[in-house]
Amino acid sequence: MKDLPRGLLIKARIWRALFPLRWVLSAQLWVIGRVVQGCSVALFGIHVAIDFVRLMCLDYTARPDDVFLVTYPRSGTTWLQMIMYQLTTDGSMDFQHIAEVCPWFERVAMNRRNLDAMPSPRIFKSHLPHIWIPKRRCRYIYVARNGMDVAVSFYGFHKSHLRYRGTFEQFFNRFMRGWVVWGSWFYHVSRWWRYRNQPNVLFLKYEDMIADLEGCVRRIIALCELDVAEERMPEILRRCSFEFMKEHEEKFDFATEVMLEKGFTPDTFIRGGRVGDGADRLDDEQTARFQSKYKRCVAGIGLTFEDAADASTGDAHGK
Ligand code: PPS
User: Is 38 found in the same domain as 17?
Assistant: First the structure.
């Protein structure tokens, strides 16, 4: 540590001296953190509720050819989105995420998407129980999946996407009581089942889709009165297969959807892998600032980078 520049040495000593305090303060900080977290969750809940009412009363104007794809989570929603997308377009895969072409209705309340600008037929994904879904002259396709499979899939999703740390047993107890996001599976499926015979409702089972995808797709075509050329069917079924969707998983993953909403640009993580991007990108003033600190803190202790040295002479900019 002795060969560090003076400024860094002082900072390092202060940091080392204060470090034990972290443990003294951590218990109090934890409690304060929990209180702040609790308040922010409550405020977020109120905010979501207000936005939802706004969506239902102001932002959403129904069209007769709107289609709602409704499920309890982990029951085949994304699969259904892909089926509808394939049936209502040329099926090209050049979208970033399926939510672009088939948005999640409840999330529209948060991301303020202009629903009136969407071309018909508009297709919405939803996990709303029957009591909350907008009841208009639209069409509704509900998919139910065996609750035990849903519990296993939902647990996996909680672990992989929601940072859930409990065991399956703990999760399953919550699932059985309906103490999970979207509430009770039993309530959700049984309520929707009551409306299965309405002419604008199609009630499907995930297990039937696995056993006879083509049959289910034809029932969807009939409900939505779609005009799909017979020769397109094999390709539609191929694109809706598990294998094809797995191959394009990032276009369906919830994590991608959230990141895109936050402004994430795809294909930017494994970016370019070049040496010299910095020298090309930084302007003269930025280069000079970097160089000054680099000489003081890094080059001085014998750690040098060829590019950094070149940049200091202005070579990298061709100056
Ligand atoms: S979510 O998070 O609520 O939107 O999830 P959801 O899309 O409803 O359900 C995810 C499960 O559906 C399975 N899935 C498929 N199964 C068969 N064929 C196709 N094409 C397909 N696409 C998605 C997906 O694998 C999830 O189930 P599990 O059991 O977790 O694999």
Answer: yes
Q: Tell me which of 22, 40, 59 is where a domain ends.
A: 59
Residues 94 and 225 in one domain: yes
- pLDDT 10s digits, 38-87: 888 888 788 777 877 777 777 888 999 999 999 999 999 999 999 999 99
> Is residue 250 situated within a structural domain?
yes
- Digit-coded pLDDT (tens) for 227-264: 999 999 999 999 999 999 999 999 999 999 888 888 88
Cβ–ligand 1 distance for 75 under 6 Å, the answer yes
Question: What pTM does this model have?
Answer: 0.79
Alpha carbon distance 5, 11 (integer Å)? 10
CA distances from 24 to 11, 13, 15 (A): 21, 19, 15
**249: enclosing H helix or E strand:** none
Same domain membership, residue 234 and residue 188? yes
Helix (H, G, I), strand (E, B) or coil at 314: coil
Between the CA of 180 and the centroid of ligand 1 the distance, in Å, is 18
71 lines ligand 1 (CB under 6 A): yes
State in Å: Cα 103 to ligand 1 middle: 17
Please give the order of strands across the beta sheet that includes 139-144: 123-126, 67-71, 139-144, 201-205
- Structural domain harbouring 24: 1-59
Rounded to the nearest angstrom, the distance between the alpha carbon of 313 and the centre of ligand 1 is 57
Q: Are residues 4 and 96 in the same domain?
A: no
Catalytic residue among 97, 127, 130, 188: 127
Query: How many domains does one find in the chain?
Result: 3
Known catalytic residue at 317: no
